[in-house]
Automatic annotation (TrEMBL):
One of its GO terms (molecular function) is aspartic-type endopeptidase activity. The lineage of its organism: Eukaryota, Viridiplantae, Streptophyta, Embryophyta, Tracheophyta. It comes from the Eukaryota. Residues 35-367 form the Peptidase A1 domain. One of its GO terms (biological process) is proteolysis. Belongs to the peptidase A1 family. This is (rape) hypothetical protein. The keyword Metal-binding does not apply. The gene is BnaC09g38560D. PANTHER family: ASPARTYL PROTEASE-RELATED (PTHR47965), PEPTIDASE A1 DOMAIN-CONTAINING PROTEIN (PTHR47965:SF33). It comes from Brassica napus (Rape). Keywords: Signal. InterPro entries: Aspartic_peptidase_A1, PEPTIDASE_A1, Peptidase_aspartic_dom_sf, TAXi_C, TAXi_N. Residues 1-20 form the signal peptide.
Length: 379
């Protein structure tokens, strides 16, 4: 498991695409369930900025007042190729403007302060590249992000996400991996790819600025839910900002009733809902859920693999959440009858897995839960 912790920097002197891997930290705010990384922006020796990880954002944005020294920051002219390649950019007559929608507040409109800028970025403490293109936004657009987070690091499949700017700058394989910690610090890798654990592959579907996977069935303790197949057709979006997986009502209900039957069978009793959760259970006096394993019912998603179905298995720590000493809730949310996406897989489900988004093959590689290996993203 040392491979996970080891920082591998291999700077190729040749033009060939290298296997270099850059490692950045991921920190979880326990209160807000927001995950962020830290990079240095600007020419100052040490100018850390904390940015929310969002795999649905293309161009990174932040409150540029949080940058220690603005001396090397420069505006991007409207006529530059960079500005022209940013979809739906605007121009104040001279400088390029762009407002990336916040993952939390969707209705902002671009204003003259939302400028596209470039500066030096430093990752892994010593490795720098420039230009890093991002945008500065007005303070009012930061709402929804809690301190110490100053903005959003875009990791979408688009043209300008941070990972793509890094892999282009260093001519490394266009891929990145995240290991979201359930507590403390996890890891964010760019390039490279050896993780020392076995990984399962499934195709990624790119829709707009989102990554989706294509579930073919959902199982509870190995038994498939009976679902109208059209419900799964649109795929499942992956999100690093949604805390709990959101399911269309019919999918949610099927999952919740299968889960409830199992929970009652192993001695739990259903109790009234505790928002935002709809299905909560009291542990029986004679039973105790093993805190490390949270050994309750497993939920699996069947996915297309290499010519056969592969399963992504979620165990107790990813399927339930402990809300009181003896009470656990099913950690999924009912998204309503007609949500925009019928499945959005959120961070409670994604944490303690290694997820490798490989855009050289447009595939997602996912590990087993590291908890099964007596390991976690923060270990
Ligand atoms: C954005 O939407 C929120 C909630 O729907 C509303 O309260 C707010 O006034 C809107 N802001 C703008 C700038 O339209
Ligand atoms: C987490 O977010 C809360 C709510 O905004 C904030 O008060 C707190 O300082 C943050 N915690 C850490 C460790 O940054
Ligand atoms: C969970 O694990 C604990 C300790 O290993 C065991 O006592 C308990 O019966 C298990 N519960 C279930 C539901 O399997
Ligand atoms: C898991 O880790 C704990 C503490 O680090 C250790 O006591 C235990 O023996 C380990 N279990 C296995 C199966 O490796």
């Amino acid at each position: 498991m040392h491979g996970l912790k080891r920082l591998i920097i291999f700077i190729s002197m040749f033009a060939a695409i290298s296997e270099a891997q850059y490692l950045l930290p991921i920190t979880k705010n326990e209160t807000t369930k927001q995950y962020y990384t830290t990079i240095n922006i600007g020419s100052a020796a040490n100018s850390p900025v904390n940015l929310l990880l969002d795999i649905g954002t293309d161009l990174s944005w932040l409150n540029c007042r949080k940058i220690k020294s603005l001396s090397s920051l420069h505006l991007v002219p409207c006529q530059s190729p960079t500005c022209k390649s940013i979809p739906s950019n605007a121009c104040d007559g001279k400088h390029c403007l762009y407002l990336q929608q916040s993952p939390f507040v969707k209705n902002h409109t671009v204003s003259t302060v939302d400028r596209v800028v470039q500066d030096k970025a430093t990752i892994s403490t010593k490795v720098s590249f420039r230009p890093f293109t991002f945008s500065c936004v007005a303070q009012t657009h930061i709402q929804g992000l809690s301190p110490p987070i100053a903005g959003v690091l875009g990791l979408s499949p688009g043209e300008f996400p941070f990972w793509r700017q890094v892999t282009r700058a260093f001519n490394i394989i266009p891929r990145f991996a995240i290991c979201l910690p359930s507590s403390g610090n996890g890891n964010f890798f760019i390039g490279g790819g050896g993780f020392g654990v076995s990984m399962t592959l499934t195709p990624l579907k790119i829709v707009g600025s989102d990554y989706l996977i294509s579930p073919t069935s959902i199982y509870v303790d190995g038994i498939p839910l009976s679902l109208n197949p059209s419900l799964l057709e649109s795929g499942a979006k992956l999100s690093t900002v949604v805390p709990y997986t959101v399911l269309q009502t019919d999918i949610y209900n099927a999952l919740a009733s299968a889960f409830t039957r199992k929970a009652i069978k192993i001695g739990m009793s259903e109790i009234p809902r505790l928002a935002p959760f709809k299905h909560c259970f009291q542990e029986g006096s004679s039973m105790r859920i093993n805190e490390e394993l949270m050994n309750v019912t497993s939920v699996e998603i069947g996915l297309p693999g290499n010519g056969r179905e592969v399963k992504w298995t979620f165990h107790g720590k990813n399927t339930v959440v402990r809300v009181l000493e003896t009470v656990i809730c099913l950690a999924f949310v009912d998204g309503g009858e007609k949500p925009k996406e019928s499945m959005v897989i959120g961070t409670h489900q994604l944490q303690d897995y290694i997820l490798n988004f490989d855009m050289s093959t447009t595939r997602l590689a996912f590990s087993d839960s590291l908890l099964l290996h007596n390991f976690s993203c923060s270990a």
